[in-house]
Write a structure and sequence with these properties.
globular, about 110 residues
Length: about 110
């Protein structure tokens, strides 16, 4: 497999998964995807930048894809905690979300897991 589709890091192999058309996610919104055993939320800011995190808030398991997206953050729809989309750091330092590399090519969403 070419390095375009798989990258090896310290004791970890990452694969690129094509999630389909970028048009699935309107600007300023998120959408949840099932990838194997994982549920991942992919966000598309109004400026077109893509971000991906675990789909559930660690506090009350709120569906982050349904939260408000902007300024590099997502706000949980259940309790208004904010999470940085780049780092996953939350407004409560002990509550963070896992982030995933995501990009787009030729109008398709490419997620690395």
């Amino acid at each position: 497999m070419s390095s375009k589709w798989r990258r090896t890091t310290a004791n970890q192999t990452m694969s690129t998964i094509n999630l389909g058309s970028l048009d699935k996610i309107p600007l300023g919104q998120g959408l949840s995807f099932k990838v194997g055993d994982l549920e991942i939320a992919v966000f598309r800011q109004r400026d077109g930048k893509l971000f991906a995190t675990q789909s559930r808030c660690p506090h009350k398991q709120g569906p982050l894809a349904e939260g408000i997206v902007g300024g590099g953050k997502v706000i949980c729809p259940l309790h208004s905690h904010k999470f940085e989309l780049v780092t996953g750091v939350g407004s409560e330092p002990h509550e963070c979300v896992k982030t995933y590399p995501v990009s787009q090519a030729n109008g398709e969403i490419l997620l690395q897991v």
